[in-house]
Specification:
single chain, about 100 residues, alpha+beta, SH3 type barrels, five-stranded antiparallel β-sheet, 5 strands, about 25% strand
């Protein structure tokens, strides 16, 4: 799941798109580059997320997986591009 786009299914941020930058047990850490920055990611239960089929930029995906420095502008741009394309819900996820 790390490096995927996700949409919040519950809470005050319902419908908001994020990028998952880290996972710990049943929680995922989410960023959107604006309110939830890479310095202060949102901690949310995986069951409250809907994964989105995606093609995240390889450079950004590599940075996330290697835990390199990720700039908020990169996250904002990736979400903006994804929203322009529209999105399909990923059907085969346990979340």
């Amino acid at each position: 799941m790390t490096g995927m786009f996700a949409i919040s299914k519950a809470g005050h941020d319902k419908g908001q798109m994020y990028v998952i930058i880290r996972e710990e047990g049943e929680f995922a850490y989410l960023v959107d580059g604006r309110i939830r920055t890479t310095d202060h990611p949102k901690k949310k239960k995986k069951k409250h997320l809907q994964m989105v089929k995606t093609d995240l930029d390889e450079n950004l995906l590599e940075k996330i997986r290697n835990r390199n420095i990720i700039y908020n502008e990169e996250i904002k741009y990736a979400i903006k591009v994804r929203m322009k394309k529209g999105y399909q819900k990923q059907e085969d996820t346990p979340c």
